[in-house]
Design goal:
- This protein is α+β, with helices and mostly antiparallel strands and 153 residues long.
- It has a single domain, classed as PH-domain like, CATH 2.30.29.
- The strands form 2 sheets. The chain has a 4-stranded antiparallel β-sheet with strand order 1-2-3-4, sandwiched between helices. A 3-stranded antiparallel β-sheet has the order 5-6-7, covered by helices on one side.
Length: 153
């Protein structure tokens, strides 16, 4: 009778260990692909900043955030937490990566986040580079400027 109880307890422990490792690997794979999670984490770190747009890297391990006041933010999945910081205008240097779909970014304030970030398309990389430059102009804004009637003197 005692051996049966020990076998059942051993099976339960093995089941829970298997379940826990499956959950941990699922969380590792998810990264920051969930934009809702990225919004919550960034909002928790900087509650007074208004988010305008998010751009996730192709692997989901980093998110670039466009803010309302020509600043940008950056989030990176670091093991079991997220590293979040604001990028002030002029405090990041970006250049095109070798693939054409990514950026090599040097953060002057937090150099441990420097790296090459690949996006799903070259357009996404170009858009993030504009955010980092601090001079983002949306396509609709450009149309309005060109079709606006001349001002009367």
């Amino acid at each position: 009778m005692g051996i049966v109880v020990w076998c059942i307890l051993f099976a339960i422990v093995i089941f829970f260990a298997y379940f826990a490792t499956r959950m941990a690997s699922q969380n590792k794979e998810d990264g920051l692909h969930d934009t809702g999670l990225a919004i919550l984490e960034f909002g928790r770190a900087f509650p007074m900043e208004a988010i305008r747009q998010l751009q996730t890297t192709a692997d989901g391990q980093a998110v670039f955030v466009r803010l309302h006041d020509d600043k940008a933010g950056f989030m990176r999945n670091v093991r079991n937490h997220f590293s979040v910081h604001l990028i002030e205008p002029g405090r990041a240097l970006a250049k095109l990566s070798g693939t054409g779909r990514g950026l090599t970014v040097d953060f002057l304030d937090v150099p441990h986040h420097n790296g090459t970030f690949e996006f799903k398309s070259p357009d996404e990389a170009a858009e993030v580079s504009l955010w980092l430059l601090g001079n983002y102009v949306a396509g609709d804004d450009m149309k309005l400027e060109h079709h606006a009637p001349p001002a009367k003197a």
